[in-house]
Write a structure and sequence with these properties.
heterodimer, A: alpha+beta, four-stranded antiparallel sheet, 13% strand, B: 468 residues
Chain lengths: 181, 468
């Protein structure tokens, strides 16, 4: 793993037991000037990403591009096969009998858009990623059960081992811990 | 901060007085996770599970024998011959694809319509879709005669210098069904990722932890990840919605684009889609009722879910009834004597018992669901669902066989009788479906953990404190 030797730890993590407390802490951290941070929750909380400064995702654009590519390639395939490479008169229809090509075009539009969306989402999320520093915290396994976490990362210019811990303590978490690399 | 009304209504669950809730009270984030993951991780196998898996396994072996014999001897071992060249293979293909429709309808269309009750039944309904489509896919592949050349169906550059006939509904079907299977699979898997992470974090067995860890791909519930995740999940639902309607439409084109009386009608696409959802919801009920009973998840799959599914069955059943009625009406309203003759053949011909049974099973008997007492009784829901599954199978039998066995020329009429190999193959796919379902219940969470958590009142962020 590539690691920055500047900081001995990945960050500081605070644990909360309800979504409201996490949201409150995340908002306070953003207001205090922290940018390199992440919030973790057992289920999606709609506003959380915006609170930590991540308002927009490019996933819809990727899906659109995938869909357009799927549709264009499917229609080109039908046209090229039926009108150029292997032209055969079937039932007196023209070689470019485009209404009949709509079905494969539609299907491949959906297929490419879906696959682009799923692989795009995984790629943007950097998954699969079996190792991540947050997994070094034992209590973090509760993130898939019932706990909510906020991690201030050491890479942030605002980060200071003592000051950041004081800041997190002021948010009344259940628990604060260092996240080793 | 964005707090649109959409997200709020998604989480709210407005109840009429006396209506059972989507999730029984008394649950917390922790109990939901523990309850669902413990079915996979802690619970011993039990006699019921082993018995079901054994029956499925035996039937799969029957399927393997039937397929081996088919490979050795060819499709002549089935009852098909000219004029009825389609027979069981196409009947079962349409029946299985239809059953698959309910899963995508529940996971995609009901998600877009913000029906919160979908959340606890979508996972196993999607699994049901996948296995049903797998069963469906076997039939046309075996029916092509030389299954080892089935890849000729796909457009690929080949030394023969030919390409598939893109004007043919049978080629459309290849695209529709393979797209449907792929999109259903990725939709299902994307939904599973956070729940597999839950299993990973709960698993004690090191092998289980490693396997779930690999499948979860390092999911850690980050807010940025959730944001992209939610985005793609909604988009997939939006894409799957027209897809699910298109699949059975394309299947119906296999019939409707042909010239044969009884097939060549414009009512086929909507009537096929409604029939698919009808049989799909019947299968959902047939699976949900025993699962919730044996695994004690009545608090998550509540009486509300079952009743809603019964209501959808009632509604789609009426659309199907309209389709039957319209076929008959058009035959007598139009001037086509062949069309009229096929209706007559269905009523009084050699397959008339099948036709009248399907009318009874699909249209007459399910009307008892109008009575609230019957609709709310799990016993009757189960009986009616079985009735609909048999009825919808008979519908496909009547559509495929009656039109083919007596077409325009009496000199080319013939009868169709399935052989024991037909039955063995069909029962074998039922076994495959059963085996795959019981296996799924034991290795993956059958109820979506993270979506159920979002149904809890404490999952909402209290606005007053946020603004503080």
């Amino acid at each position: 793993m590539k690691q920055t030797p500047t900081s001995p730890i990945y960050g500081l993590m605070a644990e909360f037991d309800n979504p409201t407390a996490l949201m409150h802490a995340a908002e306070a951290a953003y207001a205090a000037g922290y940018r390199q941070m992440d919030a973790y929750s057992p289920y999606p909380i709609e506003e959380l990403a915006e609170v930590i400064g991540f308002p927009k995702t490019r996933v819809p654009l990727i899906v659109l591009i995938g869909g357009l590519m799927g549709g264009a390639s499917a229609f080109s395939l039908c046209y090229w096969c039926s009108a150029i490479s292997y032209p055969v008169v079937v039932a007196g229809r023209p070689f470019n009998s485009w209404p009949a090509f709509i079905v494969p075009t539609f299907e491949l539009t959906i297929l490419f858009a879906s696959l682009a969306g799923v692989f795009g989402m995984l790629a943007l999320n950097g998954l699969p990623l079996p190792y991540h520093p947050v997994f070094n915290v034992d209590r973090f396994s509760a993130v898939t059960r019932d706990k909510f976490f906020l991690c201030l990362e050491a890479a942030d210019p605002m980060f200071d081992r003592t000051e950041s811990e004081k800041f997190l303590a002021a948010q009344h978490p259940d628990f604060i811990t260092e996240v080793p690399h | 901060m964005h707090q649109g009304p959409d997200e709020k209504t998604l989480l709210q669950d407005v109840l009429e007085p006396g209506e059972p809730p989507v999730l029984a009270p008394g649950h917390t984030f922790g109990t939901i996770t523990d309850k669902i993951t413990s079915i996979v991780l802690r619970r011993p196998l039990g006699l019921g599970w082993t018995g079901a898996a054994f029956i499925g396994f035996v039937l799969i072996n029957g399927l393997l024998m039937a397929v081996t014999w088919l490979f050795l001897r060819g499709v002549g071992i089935w009852g098909i011959n000219v004029p009825v060249a389609w027979g069981f293979a196409i009947i079962n293909f349409v029946w299985w694809v239809g059953i698959g429709h309910a899963g995508t309808l529940i996971s995609a269309i009901l998600l877009l319509l913000k029906q919160t009750w979908r959340n606890s039944i979508n996972r196993f309904a999607e699994a049901m879709t996948l296995f049903a489509v797998a069963c469906a896919g076997m039939f046309p592949l075996l029916h092509v005669g030389r299954p080892w050349l089935a890849y000729w169906l796909f457009p690929y550059p080949n030394s023969m210098g030919v390409w598939p006939q893109f004007r043919s509904p049978l080629v459309w079907d290849v695209f529709a069904v393979s797209t449907y299977a792929t999109v259903s699979l990725v939709f299902w898997f994307v939904g599973l990722i956070p729940d597999i992470a839950s299993l990973r974090d709960r698993a004690v067995n090191p092998y289980a932890r490693t396997i779930y860890g690999l499948l979860a791909m390092g999911w850690r519930g980050s807010a940025r990840h959730w944001k992209r995740y939610q985005s793609v999940y909604l988009l997939l639902a939006g894409l799957a919605t027209p897809l699910v309607l298109s699949v059975h439409t394309v299947v119906s084109f296999d019939f409707a684009v042909a010239q044969l009386p009884g097939w060549h009608t414009t009512i086929f696409p909507p009537y096929f889609v409604a029939g698919a959802i009808y049989s799909g919801f019947a299968m959902v009920l047939v699976l949900a009722i025993p699962i919730r009973h044996f695994y004690g998840v009545e608090d998550m799959i509540t009486a509300r879910h079952l009743e809603n599914a019964a209501k959808i069955m009632l509604a789609t059943g009426l659309i199907v009834a309209y389709g039957y009625f319209m076929e008959i009406f058009m035959a007598f309203y139009g001037t086509n004597i062949y069309e009229r003759s096929i209706v007559h053949t269905r009523w009084f011909g050699p397959y008339a018992p099948g036709y009248w049974s399907l009318i009874a099973l699909n249209i007459v008997i399910p009307q008892v669901l109008w009575i609230p007492k019957v609709r709310k009784s799990t016993f009757w829901q189960f009986i009616i669902s079985m009735d609909v599954l048999i009825g919808m199978w008979l519908e496909r039998f009547v559509i495929v066989v009656t039109s083919l066995h007596r077409d325009f020329l009496p000199s080319s009429w013939g009868m169709y009788t399935p052989t024991r190999w037909d039955w063995m193959t069909y029962l074998g796919t039922l076994g495959f479906f059963l085996f795959a379902m019981v296996l799924f219940i034991r290795v993956l969470p059958m109820i979506t953990i993270f979506e159920i958590k979002a149904l809890l009142p404490e999952s909402e962020v209290e606005p007053a404190e946020v603004e503080a």
